[in-house]
Amino acid sequence: MSRSQVLDLYFIEARSKLIDVAAFLDRIELAGGDDDYRMRAFRDALIALVEEGGGARRAESVLLTFSDPTREPVGRAGGKAAGAWRGEAE
Amino acid sequence: MVSRTTDDYQAMVLAGCRAVCEPAFWAGFDRGSAEGFRDYFAQLTEHEPARAAKYLLPHYSWLCINPKESENLALADEVLSIIPDFLGRPNVLGIGEIGLNRNSRNEVAIFEKHVDLAARHNQLILIHTPHLEDKRKGTLLILDVLKNDPRIDPGRVLIDHVEEHTVGMVLDAGFWGGITLYPESKCTPARAIDILERHAGGTLWMNCACDWGQSDPLAVPKTCLEMRKRGHDAKSIDRLVFQNPARFLSQSPHFSVPA
Predict the structure, then answer these.
(1) What CA–CA distance (Å, rounded) separates B23 from A73?
(2) pLDDT confidence band for A79 (50 / 70 / 90)
(3) Do the Cβ atoms of B49 and B89 come closer than 8 Å?
(4) Contact across the interface for B134 and A81, Cβ inside 8 Å
(5) Option in A57, A77, A82 nearest B71 (CB)
(6) B29-49: buried (b, 16+ CB within 10 Å) or exposed (e) per residue?
(7) Which chain A residues contact residue B186 at CB under 8 A?
(8) From the list A10, A71, A82, which residue is nearest B133 (CB)?
(9) Could you tell me if A55 lies within 8 Å of chain B, comparing CB atoms?
(10) B225 in contact with A, Cβ within 8 Å
């Protein structure tokens, strides 16, 4: 597809999702309390989103930002996945 | 989930679905005994095929103890011991969906035992990869186990739920990759088509989630419609959604769908 065709098909949807993200960030800012590991990962992902790394790999970069980078199995399965790696120290 | 509703079966047939493959899954709660699994395997190999047949839909299944219940090693060992009793059932395609959930040592140990079971009984393997932050690490751990077992032919293993950050490592190692479609929170039809367009080889397919969260039994036909909007022709769509899965699944002597 041409860039124009991609825009015709997906621009409105992507615009809507982007505004949802903006509204989420506003909601976070207006809420009391501190950021946790999820919000820190989210902010890192926003940076990955706008960086021009080349090769059109933004989706992969964002997913890696949220990913557990370690290689050893954990001692015991516990709790649900949260969508962002909590980190070893936390 | 552990079964489709009759409305789902009817809608799938009306949308052109030719067969359904149901992997053994978590029941929504941890089962308390191996006998509960024996009943579940009977459901997958006797009751569900009969339900689906009422809608002219061939039903196939995969057997295992799901990774979510693999933390209990004693229970998992007991379940593993009864699986061979069911492998000869005519709708059983292999061992699955095995794999990892939270990437624990016990999950890895039971995954290795499932892989051994599949190798000893010459079964196809269907693998679940973790969702969210655990996916990349879990996929790497799974690939380590598979590559360390010389009996495993990558062409007889499908690693499911690949996303942009794991699809390359799966396909580059010679395994089949599955993209699972979700209405929310995970891979959407648009992203799935992006992945398919960038990895155009013949060892990738799409499937509909049948999860405890929101899932859509018509996700694949809806993705076909989106592929048409993006200019894919009928032949290439048929190759992705029918010919590729049929080619992989036909490695099981139990699988056949009318042409």
Answers:
(1) 25
(2) confident
(3) no
(4) yes
(5) A77
(6) eebeebeebbebbebbbeebb
(7) none
(8) A82
(9) no
(10) no
Q: What is the pLDDT of residues A10-48, one digit of tens each?
A: 999 999 999 999 999 999 999 999 999 999 999 999 999
State the Cα–Cα distance between residues B99 and B97, nearest whole angstrom.
7
Contact A63 B164 (CB under 8 A): yes
Domains of chain B plus CATH, in order, are 6-249 (3.20.20.140)
B156: amino acid identity, one letter = R
Question: Quick one: pLDDT at residue A90?
Answer: 42
Q: Is B61 helix (H, G, I), strand (E, B) or coil?
A: strand
Q: Does A12 touch chain B (CB under 8 A)?
A: no
% chain A with pLDDT above 90: 81
Look up residue B235 and give its two tokens: 């032949």
Cα B62 to chain centroid distance, Å, stands at 8
> Mutation test of the interface with chain B: which of A76, A88, A90, choosing the one with the most B Cβ atoms within 10 A?
A76
Record: contact A73-B108, CB cut-off 8 A: yes
| Residue showing tokens 């095929």 | B49
The verdict on a CB contact (< 8 Å) between A74 and B163 is no
Residue A69 has, within 13 A of its CA and on its CB side, a CA count of: 7
- Could you tell me the CA-to-CA distances from A73 to A52, A70, B134, B135, B248 in Å, in that order? 33, 9, 11, 13, 30
> What is the pTM for the complete model shown?
0.96
Are B210 and B217 in contact by the 8 Å Cβ rule? The answer is: yes
The candidate with the shortest Cα–Cα distance to A83, out of A35, A20, A41, A26, is A41
Are the Cβ atoms of A74 and B104 closer than 8 angstroms?
A: yes
User: How many of the other CB atoms lie within 10 Å of CB of B78?
Assistant: 16
User: What separation, in Å, do the N-terminal and C-terminal C-alpha atoms of chain A show?
Assistant: 45
Going by pLDDT thresholds of 50, 70 and 90, the confidence category of residue A53 is confident
Residue B179 β-bridge partners: B206
DSSP letter assigned to residue B212: S
With a cut of 50, which residues of chain B have pLDDT below it?
A: none
